[in-house]
Design brief:
The complex is a heterodimer. Chain A contains 20 helices and no strands. By secondary structure, chain A is mainly α. The radius of gyration of chain A is 22 Å and the shape is globular. Chain A has one domain (73-218, 230-370). Chain B is of the alpha+beta class. Chain B has one domain (3-77): Glutaredoxin. In chain B, 41% of the residues lie in helices and 20% in strands. Chain B has a four-stranded mixed beta sheet with strand order 2-1-3-4. Chain A binds chain B through residues 108-110, 113, 136, 138, 140-141, 143-145, 147-148, 151, 216, 219-220, 223-227, 238, 241, 245, and chain B through 7, 9-10, 12-13, 39-40, 42-50, 59, 62-65.
Chain lengths: 372, 79
């Protein structure tokens, strides 16, 4: 036991802090009642992470410059939403990418491959889905990862668990979602994303579709890279570079997302959105999934749209389906994957992910009341 | 000194190759920097995350777009 602590000093500290937070909250809850705990978390998610104070400040400034009549007009509200959301998302993005990249620098795909090859069965699927959240990923790396995993003897199911969770669930998304929808929704998003990855991967393997890969994938032998350990300073440099590169890549997505968000927010009548995507339309989840699937945007680009839909009373399940279908599946990454896997496996993969997203959507719409 | 720039998929990899060419030139290396785009060749180095850089058969960086200065330092360390 003491050896374990020595070996995993950082993990022990992290777990210690986590338990301390849970313990303190449980303590406050027992003494002052659960409402107080809820207030603390709400304050944290809406004011600290959500920066509602910034929204008020921008409203105040716009009112001062253009007068209060402008502020309550549609143009005023759109402008306020646009400025507030852009600043908020950009700021959180920089901060989060920095922290996340720092963590990711411990998990290059080459290391993930080594860790994964030690596990078998459903445990391997779960570890695969979890590692998918911390391994750096871009659509070009899906093929090398696919080939590398397969050659290392990792089963197709585990590889797909990884490939499903990697774009879908990420630590940054957890925090950003918490800032808009609160922690229960954010945790639910991460949880169902991981469950979808585990079940989807398992199904692909069990159904036998997993063996339909192109011949060259299995033709080579596995090569393990002897990786040099990198210093803390290098990790920080890497994290800074990631912030810069990501921002360069996604700023346009975010602006477009915020623009669409502010249009939904202030220009499209609530009744329209309610009739198409509202909780009373039984097809709302289907529509959201079908529209979202071919589109690809970074999860950060989808958040302002989700935020606006949420404020119009669209069900959380419908929003989840939309966000998941936009981030998990996209035409460019499917074209890439097609080079390494045969059509039958590709279609099984698409089918399972789409089906999973639709089921999640309906499930969460049924549980809508828990999140509002 | 043989320098290989691995990865031909995204702009990052292409930029990494170009930076390697400048860096090799600045260090006075005569041999041309090779741009490896073939996935099988990339995998044969055990690399799964491009852009990557290989100097004299040894992988010195993966998953990072390096600047000219950074590559120059890697080259000089091995001269």
């Amino acid at each position: 036991m003491s050896n374990w602590f020595k070996k995993h000093k950082k993990l022990a500290i992290f777990l210690g802090i986590l338990f301390a937070i849970i313990f303190i909250n449980a303590f406050i809850g027992l003494i002052f009642g659960w409402e107080v705990v809820k207030d603390i978390f709400n304050f944290f998610s809406y004011q600290v992470l959500g920066m509602q104070w910034l929204n008020s400040l921008i409203g105040f400034a716009l009112g001062g410059i253009f007068g209060n009549d402008f502020l309550i007009s549609r143009w005023g509200l759109s402008l306020q939403f646009f400025i507030y959301d852009t600043i908020k998302i950009m700021f959180l993005l920089c901060l989060l990418i920095f922290i996340i990249s720092y963590i990711q620098s411990y998990f290059p795909p080459e290391r993930t491959k080594k860790i994964l090859s030690k596990f078998t069965g459903i445990k391997a699927n779960i570890v695969g889905a979890l590692l998918g959240t911390v391994t750096p990923f871009c659509s070009c790396s899906s093929i090398p990862i696919f080939i590398g995993f397969t050659r290392a003897g990792i089963s197709s199911g585990v590889t797909f668990s990884f490939l499903i969770s990697s774009p879908l669930v990420d630590l940054g998304a957890l925090i950003l979602l918490a800032s808009i929808f609160g922690f229960p929704f954010a945790i639910a998003y991460v949880f169902v994303g991981l469950v979808l990855a585990v079940i989807g991967g398992t199904f692909i393997e069990k159904s036998g579709a997993g063996k339909y890969v192109e011949d060259f994938v299995t033709a080579g032998s596995n090569v393990d890279l002897q990786q040099e350990t990198i210093t803390k300073k290098e990790r920080i440099t890497y994290a800074k570079e990631q912030v810069y590169n990501t921002l360069k890549k996604v700023w346009l997505f975010i602006l477009i997302g915020v623009l669409i968000g502010s249009i939904i927010h202030n220009w499209i009548p609530t009744e329209w959105i309610q009739s198409i995507l509202g909780i009373n339309n039984p097809f709302s989840v289907l529509i959201a999934t079908v529209v979202g699937t071919p589109i690809y945007a970074d999860i950060f680009g989808t958040i302002p749209v989700a935020e606006a839909l949420f404020s119009k009373g669209v069900g959380v399940g419908t929003i989840l389906s939309f966000m998941m279908s936009v981030t998990a599946l996209s035409v460019p990454s499917l074209i890439m994957l097609r080079k390494a896997i045969k059509p039958r496996l590709l279609w099984t993969f698409i089918g399972i992910v789409v089906l999973g997203i639709i089921i999640i959507g309906y499930l969460f719409n049924a549980l809508n009341f828990l999140f509002i | 000194m043989k320098i290989l720039a691995l990865g031909g998929c995204c702009n990052k990899s292409i930029q990494n190759y170009e930076n390697a060419v400048y860096a090799a030139h600045n260090c006075g290396i005569k041999e041309a920097v090779e741009h490896i785009k073939d996935i099988n060749q990339i995998m044969s180095y055990g690399v799964m995350f491009t852009p990557a850089l290989v100097i004299d058969g040894k992988v010195v960086s993966t998953g990072r777009l390096l600047t000219v200065t950074q590559i120059e330092k890697l080259i000089k360390d091995r001269m």
